[in-house]
Every structure is written in structure tokens, then in C-alpha cells.
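TL;DR need C-alpha cells for one chain.
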Amino acid sequence: MERATLSALNAARHARQPVLLLTPLAGGAPQIIAHDAPREGALGAAVARAFASGQPARITLDGADHFLNPYLPAPRLVLIGAVHIAQALAPMAARCGLDVTIIDPRTAFATPERFAGQRVIADWPEDALSEQPLDRWTALAALTHDPKIDDDPLSAALRAGCFYVGALGSRKTHAARLERLHASGLTPAQTDRICAPIGLDIAAANPAEIAVAVLAEIIAALRRQDRPA
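>> reply
TL;DR here they are.
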């Protein structure tokens, strides 16, 4: 790989920008394709599949074989609330390849003892997220039921275009949440992206089962965000 190509790939990785390397197998210079580049025809469909799956692929374009190799940012999961659901969800998500961070200003909950081996930040979400901004390769799940803790990161996640935004709570709780978020300036089109009640409807009855439902919903959102029609 040429130094210029490697430097461009490293720059994209540092900026958490997904790119794809298209290499003609018969020889010739590889091409870096940005995630937001226009997509048309067979190449566009193949690029969309590669970005969605994260897997390399071999394709034929105009009779010539090419190799597609996607370079994607590591998907992150930010859990707002060091609660029982988060205790079950964090290790499962980590096993699925998500980089997990738990944020909760309540120091009695956000402790290393409750989340062994996990990144735990005992601070207000707006302060913690200023050090690690959200992006479209991040999922956020708000789990505290406390508007003072949940609302700000939910708003930040929607504005950042996170690939998944979920919030724990009943439909009544969520209706009140929507009123507050709309009053803060978010539009219904933006808040419609919140998955609430959080998680797939599997009739989950305890924190571990709710965690399974949430993780499944997050994985579906991650893998389907670039799926071609």
C-alpha cells in the first residue's frame, strides 16, 4: 500500500470517518470512497453492502475484478445510567464488539465494583460527552428515568445523528419526554428516531432480558443503517 493511501486511511480512522478502499485486482491505483460519497449502479449497491456489513468483498465492474475493503470506526455504546440493566447490557455489548461507556453522576451507582472491566464515568453526561463527542457510529441508551440525567444526552445523540437512540420508560413517560425535547428545540422528525419503550418487544421481564432486547435492537440498527433497498 502506498504511503499516501495509508496516510489517508489513518486520517479517516483518527477522525472516526468510515471509508472504503476500492482496489483493481488487475493492477492500478486504489480509490478511497468516503461514506457520504454519491452512490449509483452496481458499485453503489456494493459499497452500501460493504459499509453495512463491515466485511470485504470482491466485485466485478465493467468486466474487471475489484476488491472492496471497508474501514469503519469502532461502534460505541454509551449507557446513561449505571443501573441494573446497564450491568447486564455492558458485558454483552462488549462481547459483540461495541466499545462501551457507562455515564452516571450518581457516585453510588457509577462504581468500578459494579462494572468490572468497563469504562465508568461518574459525571454529568453533558460534561462527560464534551470530552468524547457523540457521532453517527455511536449508540446511546438512556436508562435512568430521570429527566435531569437523560434529557441532555438524548438531545445530543439526536443532534449528532447517532445510529441508535433509545430511552427506558413507559409510553406516558416518553410522551412527557417528547414534550420537553420539543420545547428545547428538537423537531418531531428528530425525536421520532428515539426507540421508546426501549428494546425489541420480546416480553422481557427482568433486567437481563431487557438488556438482550436492547442489544438486539442496537445491532439491528447498526447493521441496517446502510442496507440498500
